[in-house]
Amino acid sequence: MKYRKTLYENYHTTQSGRASLTDAKSLFLREKVRFSKEILPELPKDKSAKIFDFGCGSGSMLSVCQDNGYEQSTGMDLSQEQVDMAKDFGVKGVEHGDALVYLKETTEKYDVILGMDIIEHFTKDELVELLIALRRCLTPNGRLIIRTPNLDAPFATVFANGDFTHENYMNVSSAQQVMMACGFQKVSVNASDMSIDNPLKELIRRFAFWELKILYKWQLFATGRSTRDVLFSPNMIIIAQNG
């Protein structure tokens, strides 16, 4: 698609850095804190695990892996600007390239493949193609760990439509559906981290979110729907095991 060449070339300048209202290094460090809470606990205990981060951006998730002893962790991103930033921030093993093309052609096998805020950038056809390629590149019982916007979240359009390059949106049900259809097993979907560093603000946020969840659950109940597989966090963490 032609728009991708224009928008991805300077993605940090036009989107991720602009939307976060911060400089590149501050955003990088903030993402590391978030990923340490959300993703690090899901990684294997074996530090020799081979990890690939497709669409790794500035390398914040890879940096978390490498800081925690996962030395066989590498990544790829389509944006040269973000790859250059990753290298400037000391992240190792980051390459510039089209991860989808790489995953379809490589003979490498990984214990874990990560995709942070990336699958929403693919069309539905492309996403199915991508997931099949990802599963092929996983070892038996290997894990795919993905973070993506959650369409069931309050004000979901702030996150889903806040980036012009987003192509598809999912909730818990559709995430499980597409993962299982593409051959993954033991698919779980978790809420993303929403914590705030300031203790007082975090306390207020927790109370406000608790009230908000009650309101939304009442609305679902009133329409005769179950709240069992509904998350309200802005993002969701999808963990799928290769069967």
What are the SSEs and their pairings?
Blueprint lengths: L1 H8 L1 H10 L3 H15 L12 E4 L5 H8 L5 E5 L2 H9 L5 E3 L2 H7 L4 E7 L7 H13 L1 E12 L6 H5 L11 H10 L2 E8 L7 H24 L12 E8 L1
Parallel strand pairs: 1-2, 1-4, 2-3, 4-5
Antiparallel strand pairs: 5-7, 6-7
Helix pairs in contact: 3-4
What descriptive keywords fit this protein?
single chain; 243 residues; alpha/beta; Rossmann fold; 10 helices; 7 strands; 45% helix; 19% strand
Number of domain units: 1
Label the structural class.
alpha/beta
Write down the overall geometry. globular
Portion of residues within helices? 40-55%
The whole-number mean of residue pLDDT values reads: 90
Q: In CATH's first tier, which class applies?
A: Alpha Beta
Taken in chain order, the helices and strands follow as: HHHEHEHEHEHEHHEHE
